[in-house]
Each structure stands twice: as structure tokens, then as C-alpha cells.
Hints:
There is one protein chain. The protein is α+β, with helices and mostly antiparallel strands. The protein folds into two domains: 47-131 and 145-189; 197-365, Rieske Iron-sulfur Protein, CATH 2.102.10. 34% of the residues lie in helices and 15% in strands. It is built from nine helices and 16 strands. It has helices at residues 47-50, 52-82, 99-125, 143-159, 166-189, 197-201, 244-250, 256-261, 276-280; strands at residues 5-6, 11-13, 22-23, 88-91, 95-98, 215-219, 236-241, 263-267, 286-290, 302-304, 309-311, 318-320, 326-329, 338-339, 342-343, 349-351. α2 packs antiparallel against α3 (99-125) and α2 packs parallel to α5 (166-189). The longest helix is centred in the first third of the chain and has 31 residues, at 52-82. The protein is elongated. The chain crosses the membrane at residues 62-83, 103-123, 167-185.
Amino acid sequence: MTDIDTSQSGAVSDGNPGTPGTDLARHDGALPDRFENPGLPAHVHRAADDDPAAAKRAEKQVATLFGLSMLATLVFLVGYFAIRDEATFYLPGVGLAKTQNVVLGLSLGFALFFIGIGAVHWAKTLMSDEEIVEERHPQRSDDRARSAAVTTVLDGGTNAQLGRRPLILYSLGGAMGLFALPFVLQIAGSLGPVDGPEELKHTIWDLENNDGKPIRLMRDPEMTPIKLDEVTNGSVFHVMPETLQKYIDENHGVLEAKAKAAVILIRLDPNDIKVAKARDWGVDGVVAYSKICTHVGCAVGLYEQGTHHLLCPCHQSTFDLTEDCKVIFGPARRPLPQLKIQVDDAGYLVAPEGFHEPVGPSFWERKR
């Protein structure tokens, strides 16, 4: 252990005999000079700084990288329109993958990658790399300093050689401009069905997926049928249609429909149900509703038996089961759609028809 001996003069000893103390404070308030300023290392010139031919090669390399970004973006745009949504292929280590998703993801990633690499190469080879040291100053600069900052920014454009390197300027503009198109395309063309709410009414619960016959309600994920006498008061079942696997097989592994078809099945005391339609569409207090929140589509799976409320865990939208899943709290603006159910001759719960209203978020209700 090292002993520290502090005297009134402010000297500190490191405990070694004969070692003078180091002044941590002086009477005049000045700090001691402990280290010499090492200064900046000698500036190393790059090939492009002294050789116009090297600078031209670097310019072409940067433009090539931006050109590759544009090419990747064009692949994204072509893939978006040309690849069928149902197309799939086997991806080692992943399994069955949608061709369009893979192509769009890789092309968009490469488009951004080449823009970034091009910008880095541009900065490393052509932009000014003179070392600058600036002393600390008060946070709020005076007007003269602010004006100088504006001048520095403008000088930065000059140092980047935008005026001298039009090939880089145009290729960067093309890469950045094209890179924005995939986002515009997705916003304009992919946020919701083209045909509006009518398309959202159609789910796997439609009887056409079962040759017009009622569809059994199946436990999810066990996919076993549910008898009426198995649903006790207050119990909750997460339900899928019996035709789920058949639909997926016939539509080349499309799983989006599974999300639309998710249903929650709950049994209440029939006397607690206040809406006649909700009571008539159920069986002895057993009711079935879409699990997809009408706000932004999260899964509504939290049930409070004491209050008969269904809660969405994402944004706390709350639905009252006794009033046909009326919204009583939160950002949702539309009740959960009810699925009409009956009991077949074997005692199993079945859906004699599909949803009568769109499931999921209600963005289509907004004025266009």
C-alpha cells in the first residue's frame, strides 16, 4: 500500500524517500505544465493529392460504386413488379422463403451498401484530409464565428471537389434519387389492399375454402377440433380454421392469410351479453371474435374475466365483450369483427359463414 503524505503547501509525496512532491495546486492558481504538446503528425499526401491521373481513377471508382447502387435499386424496382407474390424457393439454413422478399431485401441492402462505400472511398481519396485543431470556446458562438461556420460549410463543398468532379456529383445524385424510389413505391403501393375493405372481408373462414360446408374451429397450434362442452365459463381458446393447412398447401405456402384468420373464442354467461346480435351469433354464451386489433393489427389476446374486457398489449385498446367488442378505451376506433358460430351434429363448434366485415386495422376508413 502506498502512503500519501499531504503537507499544507499542497505537495503530495508518493511515499518514496527523496522523491519531491508534485504540486497539484499553486498559490497563483496556475496549473503545472506536465506534458509538452506533441503537435500533429506530419501530413501524408495521398496519391490523388499529387497525381491527377490517380485522382481521375479515384473519381471513376467512386462513380462506379454509385452506379452499382443505382443498378441494385433498379433490380429492386423490377423485382417488385416482375416477381409473383406467391413465388418461393428453398433457402439453405432458413427453409422456404418468398422469392420477392429475398430479392427486394438483398437489392435494397446492396443499394445502400454501395452508396455508403462510395461515400467512404470519396472521402478517403479525394476530399481534403488536412488535420485541423480547434481550441475549446464558449458554446454560444458570436455572430462573427457563426458567419465563419457558414463559410466553412461552403468551403467544405469546395474541398469535396463537387465543382471539379461532376461525374461524382451526378452519379451520387442518381444513386440517392433512385434509392428513394423503393420507399416511395412501398408507401404508395403497398400500404393496404387495392380494393379497399372488401378484400379484408375475405379470409380462410370463407366457405368457398371448404366446398361450401361449415368450417370447424380448431385449437391453435394443436389444430384439434373444439366441442361446445369443452369450453367452460371464462375459458379462452386461440382458434384457427380447419382449412388452414389445406389453404397454405394450395397457395404455395402463403402464411399471411393465417394472421387474418386468427380468432379468439371465449365463453361468458349469456345473461352478461348485452347486444342481441352478439348473443345470436354465439352458442350458449360462447362467442368468437377476430384477434386482430382494429388499430394497427396487433394480436388481441389478453382477457380480463372479471370485467369481460379484451386488451391489446401494443397500445392498450380495450374491447367490451358484453357489448359486441365495443371499443371502450385506447386508439382503436372500430369493434373487433365477430365470427358467427354454431354446433354441428357431432357437438363440434363450426363457422357457418365467414366474416361480414373487414378484419384488422381500419386505415381504409380514412378519406382518400
